[in-house]
């Protein structure tokens, strides 16, 4: 993958954004050690800004620093993921409730389009990567419709920590089908402006996703 132009942003901030993008696209696995020299050469910068970018990503929860060993993509244990899903469910339920009374017609159209896009991914035989990208876009659109920046920032920070764990456990067409039927219910509730229905649909979706991850994890360890 070619590096993106860093532009005129603060160099450590620009590097952080680029390295985060690489991590969140799943190009590097959990537990992978990151090499300062590699990224310095990749972006044609000194090691200092790369080190600052790494520190910022450690604070964000995407990387971990191990003394005398280096910086690694932070692995997420099953127990950590399950706890994070519970918090995510509460935040997403609130987003759904707020969005039910704040969403605009064009945003509903956008959400329905994303649900259709995910259906097409399933029809293609379970295109997990494309499905996941559309899923991320749907979550972001719902958070935007809630019109609460603090909620969106808190939710997105948590989701970034879960990102690699979610990608690792996605891929079953039956799970994608169940998930997208829940997406459709969420969008229907938002379109109807029903706060309680939207809150319940968003909460149940994340908790059901938690159960699907447990099921997938159990199948892989049998």
TrEMBL record:
Transmembrane segments: none annotated. The keyword Transmembrane helix does not apply. Residues 9-76 form the HTH gntR-type domain. InterPro entries: GntR_C (IPR011711), TF_FadR/GntR_C (IPR008920), Tscrpt_reg_HTH_GntR (IPR000524), WH-like_DNA-bd_sf (IPR036388), WH_DNA-bd_sf (IPR036390). Keywords: DNA-binding, Transcription, Transcription regulation. The keyword Isomerase does not apply. This is FCD domain-containing protein. It comes from Flaviflagellibacter deserti.
